[in-house]
Amino acid sequence: MNDLCFLKSDFLNSPIQKLSETNPNSLLLELSMKREDLISGEVSGNKYRKLKYNLAKAETEQHKTLLTYGGAFSNHIAATASAGQIAGFKTIGVIRGEELGVDLEKTLRQNATLRFADKCNMYLYFVSRANYKEKNKKAFRESLKNKFQDFYEIPEGGTNDLAVRGCTEILDENTAVYDYIACPVGTGGTIAGIIEGSLPHQKILGFPALKGDFLETEIKRYTSKTNWQLIPDYHFGGYAKVNQELISFINLFKKQQSIQLDPIYTGKMMYGLIDMMRNGFFSKNTRILAVHTGGLQGIAGINARLKKQGSKLIDYDG
Ligand SMILES: Cc1ncc(COP(=O)(O)O)c(C=O)c1O
Question: Quick check: pTM over 0.70?
Answer without folding.
Answer: yes
